[in-house]
Amino acid sequence: MSSLELGFYCIGAVLLLIAMRMPIGVALALMPFLGIAQLRGLDVAFGMLKTIPFDFAAHWSLSAIPMFLLMGAIAHHSGISSALFRAARLWLSALPGGLAVASNFACAGFAAASGSSVATAAAMGRIAIPEMLKQGYDKGLATGTVAAAGTLGSLIPPSILFVLYGVFAEVSITKLLIAGVFPGLLTATVYGAMIITRCKLNPNLAPRIDVEVDRAERYKALGAVWPLLVLILGIIGGLYGGIVTPTEAGAFGAFLAFVIGFLQGRMNLTVIWSSVLEAVTSTARIFFVAVGAVMLTKFLALTGMPVYLGQLIGDWALDPLLLVIGASLIYLLLGMFLDPLGILLITLPVLLPMFEALQLDLIWFGVLVVKYLEIGLLTPPVGFNVYVIKSVVGKSIELETIFKGVTWFLFCELIVVALLIAFPQISIYLPNTMD
User: Rounded to an integer, what distance in angstroms lies between the CA atom of residue 381 and that of residue 372?
Assistant: First the structure.
C-alpha cells in the first residue's frame, strides 16, 4: 500500500470511527498515530504524540479562545443576555412576529459577546422561548428562531471558529473576525425579513401583542444594554482600528465584562466561579479535538495528499466556481453528521491546498466555511443547536417540531450563501480597508 492510499484510508477510518460515536478528538488522533507508525515507525509516532499537543497549545493566537469564552460566560451569568432580550422585545414587539424578530436580533447582539453558537442558543433559549410560548407563538417558530439565530455566534465576531481557521490557514485572524461582520448582519436581516413575512401571511403563527409601553420605558430598557455596546465597541473597534490583536481583544473583552458586571453589582463568587469553570471546560473540549486534528494534518502531509490534490486541481484545470460548489457540498454533507469543530479541522488539510492552488481569497473562503458550519448546526440528524434547544425546552416540545421550525431558516441560509458566493465583497470589503 502506498503512502497516498494510506492517507485516504485514514480519512475514511476517522469518519467511520466518529460515526460509531468515538470521541472526535480520539478518532482524529488515533488513526494518524497508527498511520505514522506504519510509515515512519512507532518511535516517530510516539515522538509526535509527545510534542504536538504542547506545540499546538503553546500557539499564542489560540489564547484568544479561552478569553472569548470567559467573556461570553461572564456576559451571560451577569445578566447581559436578559437585558438585551427585554430591550429588543419592547422595541420590536409591534411587528408581525415581533417576539421572534426580537429573539433573532437579541441573538445577534449576544453573539458579539459570546463567540460560540451553542452558548448563544442556550443563553437566549432560556429567556426568549418561554416568553414566546407564553404569548401563544407557534412552537416551531419559537424554537426554530432561537436555534437558527444562535448560529450567529460563529459568524459575528468574536468567533472561535474564525480563530481556529486563521491558525490552520495561516491568514490574519483579525481580518477574519472583521470579515464576519457584514455576513452576520446580512444573515440576521434575512432571518428577520422571513419571520415578518411568514407571520404577516399567517398571523396564527404569532398572535399580535398589544404592549402598552411609553417611550421613556423603551429608552430605559435600551439604556440597560450599554454593557453590550461597550463590549462590541471594545472588541470590534479595537480590532478594526488595529489597536488590539485578537488575543488582546479577548482578554480586554473578558476584563470589560468583569468590570461591567462589578459596576452593576452583579458580580459575586458564584458568578465568577461559574464563568471560569464554563470557560475552562469549553476550552479543554476544543483543544482536545484540535490536537487530534493537528495529528491528522501532520500525517496527511507525510502521505503527500495535499501535494497530490493540488496537482490534481492543476491537471484538471478546475473552474474556481466548481471548486467552491464542490467544497460547499462536502461541508453541507458532513454538517449533517459531524461536530462543526471536527468538520473544520478534518477538511482544512485537504481543501486549503486546492484553494491556494487556484489563488482564491482565503479570507472569503473562511467566511464561507464558517457559514457552512452554521448550517450544519441546524441540519438533521445531528443539528447541535437543535439539540441544545431541545435540552432547554425539555419534554414539552418534540425534537421533530424544532427541526421543522428551522427548515425555513435553512432556506434563508441558501439565499445568504448564494449572495456571499456571488458578491465576495460582502465578506472582504471591511478586511480590505484595513490594509
Answer: 16
